[in-house]
Structure formats: structure tokens, C-alpha cells
Amino acid sequence: MRVPTMIGVMCTLLGTLAGADGVMAEESLIIHQKPVLDLASAMHLMDVARTYAAAHKWPCAIAIVDDGGWPLSTLRMDGAPVVSGTDLAQGKARTSALFKRPSDDLEKAINGGRSAAITAGLLMMKGGQPIKRDGQVIGAIGISADTPVHDDEIALAALSAFEKSEQ
Asked: What is the value of pTM for the model shown?
């Protein structure tokens, strides 16, 4: 009795997968596409947020990230009240992008008893909002100004103006 070698087994397997002409049968590959937040759009959104904050005299730090939470643009306005504001804005944006929802939702979950979220290494504070295109999250904006209410107001106003300009 002969014991099949690894090469023999592989040849048999390949022969089974090959078509009549000896060429490997191809499966239909589907390549999905998704909208992407590019730098020009991120800079436009940054400018809209900065203009809104300046008009209300709420200097702040602004961060724009892609859908993976990676920074595209960060800005700290003159007079922004928190020196660590850029870190806070980036953390809020990253959290919002990764969870595909406002960063405040996680803060509410923790306050509602879901304390395990604290160990995730994310920033659960109001001021991070997802940027959506065609129903998909393509990035997020994070704001760190003087109050959580102002943080969210700036982010939402920037998103609203940005969405209108994209139509």
C-alpha cells in the first residue's frame, strides 16, 4: 500500500479545482466601494466649524478624522480655553468614527450603568459627531470648546452647513 505524499495530494486537489482546460476555475470577485472623506472635504468642514465658533466667540480645538479614527486635520483656535483641547477634540472625533455615533452616546451609556465602556480607551464626552455620506460613516468631527453644549452645537452646525454644500 502506498501512502500519498503531500505533493500527490496537492496535485489531486488542484486537478479537481481546475476546469476541463486545466486552468483554475475563477470565482466571481465582488469589490465593494465606499465613499471616502478626502482632505479637501475635511478642510472645508474644518473651515465651516472654525467660522461658526468664531462667530459665536467660542474659540475651540477642532479635529477631523477618517472612518478609522485617523487624523486628517486638527486646529486649535487662538484663545481656545483648554490647552489639552486638541487631544480632547481628536479623542472625541476618533470615538465617534469608530463607534459610528455621537461620542456623547457612550457617555450616556456609562452614566446608565455600562461601566465596561470605560476600559475601551476612548473618549466618552459630548462633542464628537460622525460624518456620513450615502448612509455610511466616512469620518467624524470632534470639538473641544468651553462647554459640552457648545462643543456639540459647533459640530452639528458644521455638519449641517457641510451637508448643504455637498448637495
From this structure: 0.79
